[in-house]
Fold this protein.
Amino acid sequence: MQVRMSDEVLGKGWLMGRMLLETTDEDGRTPLTLALYRGDTALAAMLIVAGANVNKQDKLSNSPFLLAGAKGYTEIVRLCMLHSANYRVFNRYGGTALIPACERGHVATVAALLTDKRFPIDHMNYLGWTALLETVILGDGGPQFQAITRMLVQAGADVNQPDKEGFTALQHAVSRGWTEIVQLLIRAGAK
């Protein structure tokens, strides 16, 4: 026997599913956010495709999109971007998904974020750092941070944007002795 569902029943089922996707725990975490905190990217991908909100922030101001950037979950970042990621939703430090991805050396994630020319590459967080500044200040100057610096420069990052204290990425790189990054910045017009 085949059962036919009315549009009304199907509509209610969709609404119930949507409500379950957006249910939050005491910390404001949705099932999608929890999946990402636990590192379950397969479940996260299924939830995103099912319509989970990639911009919903928890009590720590983390959204699925921001978490994916910070944790280096490149495929999840791409999925979030395809499912209406809001580039103006910021973490508790006032940062975008790009800033912690740069700081932690997630090369592939940075590359994915930079594919959208609308991404605010020179956004400054509450600490007074852009993605480029955070790459130099908090990175170790090694190959992955050199690659990220190169990508940011090629994407048009402002190489002369100073931090809150007035120091540029070049000045920070010189003070740390990171010759490769210094050369990359100088070739890009850093002063």
